[in-house]
Design goal:
The mean pLDDT is 96. By secondary structure, the protein is an alpha+beta fold. The chain contains seven helices and 20 strands. The chain binds flavin-adenine dinucleotide. The site of flavin-adenine dinucleotide has 30 residues, from β3, α4, β9, β15 and β17.
Length: 302
């Protein structure tokens, strides 16, 4: 395997890093190294890479802005593909419709829409991820979700073949969608409605302020740890079960929002995972409700 990795390094040069620490690439600032960390230069190079790694059966993960991902301390035996700025283009393609690269940040898409007087994309201004992550997670807030503005998605399958799916060919649900996990999202078309810069600016500000009031900022977190339950919001279940003061080492729960778990400085992923499991167990004991994870935890368990 090591020989294969060295050969890949030779072929892909500066775009491929061996044993790259993943803590730099996620909001928790946590996680060990990836055997291979690949940031493709362009689509052709990406296809070349996918074709190469399928011959060596390497486990592959995709990373966006890392705002919903917790990576284990032992890192990843396999390859992590992160699309960078080369995949973050945003362009106007029709009236009220934009085409955006998967690595474009949600916030930038919202602002581009504002500049072009396109409404319905205001909510993207308060989600700290990329478009690839937002589609995978069907991200949203305050009554809007990305699936409502999506027209189509372009992906690469594991064979490196490009496919396009129309919105109605994908099943979207609360914090997820039916796109196969092995499909790498390349870009998407998003359609809004005619509005004005002024009105969009006001809505964006309103949503951002609402967030500031209810959620902590400038902390190392993955946002909501658990999905809300039909009966009750996850933060309420955690608080009502008396778990909001739980901590393990530097793994803590935000005082402002009890569904935001935090690396308060020197936590390890194992501390956060222990805290997550402890809270899940306690909530189940107190309420009979089995909390489901919203964040994704990846990497090898020791
Ligand atoms: C402070 C804070 C506030 C948040 N508020 C909200 C909120 O209001 N609403 C909400 O829904 N979420 C919220 N989140 C969670 C998070 O921002 C969203 O889930 C976001 O859409 C994840 O995007 P990302 O690029 O960071 O994804 P990542 O964490 O990098 O990845 C998430 C998932 O998407 C997959 N993925 C990423 N890119 C691609 C791609 N190109 N192709 C295929 N798969 C891909 C990954 O493999 C992974 O499974 C919040 C997080 C934080 C830290």
């Amino acid at each position: 395997m090591n020989i294969m990795i060295e050969q890949l390094k030779e072929q892909f040069g500066k775009n491929l890093i061996i044993k790259e620490k993943l803590s730099k690439y996620n909001w928790f600032n946590l996680g060990g190294p990836a055997d291979i960390f690949f940031r493709p230069e362009n689509k052709d190079q990406l296809i070349e890479f996918l074709n190469k790694i399928k011959t060596i059966n390497l486990k592959t993960y995709f990373l966006g802005a890392g705002s919903n991902t917790l990576i284990r301390d032992s890192g990843i035996k396999g390859a992590v593909i992160k699309l960078g700025s080369k995949f973050s283009q945003i362009k106007l393609i029709a009236q009220n419709e934009v085409e955006v690269g998967a690595a474009a940040l949600d916030r930038n898409v919202s602002n581009f829409a504002k500049e072009n007087n396109i409404g319905d994309m205001e909510f993207l201004s308060c989600i700290p991820g990329s478009i690839g992550g937002a589609i995978t997670m069907n991200s949203g807030c305050y009554g809007s979700e990305i699936s409502e503005i999506l027209s189509s998605v372009k992906v690469l399958d594991p064979q490196g073949k490009e496919k396009e799916f129309k919105r109605n060919e994908i099943n979207f649900f609360y914090r997820g969608c039916s796109l196969p996990k092995e499909y790498l999202i390349l870009s998407a078309k998003l359609k809004g409605t005619k509005s004005s810069k002024e009105r969009i600016g006001i809505i964006q500000e309103e949503l951002i302020n609402r967030k500031k009031l209810s959620q902590p900022s400038r902390i190392k977190t993955g946002g909501s740890t658990f999905k809300n339950h039909k009966q009750k919001k996850a933060w309420e279940l955690i608080k009502d079960s008396g778990c909001d003061k739980f901590f393990i080492g530097d793994a803590k729960i935000s005082e402002k929002h009890s569904n935001f778990f935090i690396n308060n400085g020197n936590a390890k992923t194992s501390d956060l995972e222990k805290l997550i499991n402890k809270v899940k167990k306690e909530v189940y004991k107190k309420t009979g409700i089995n909390l489901e994870l919203e964040i994704s935890i990846i990497g090898d368990e020791k």
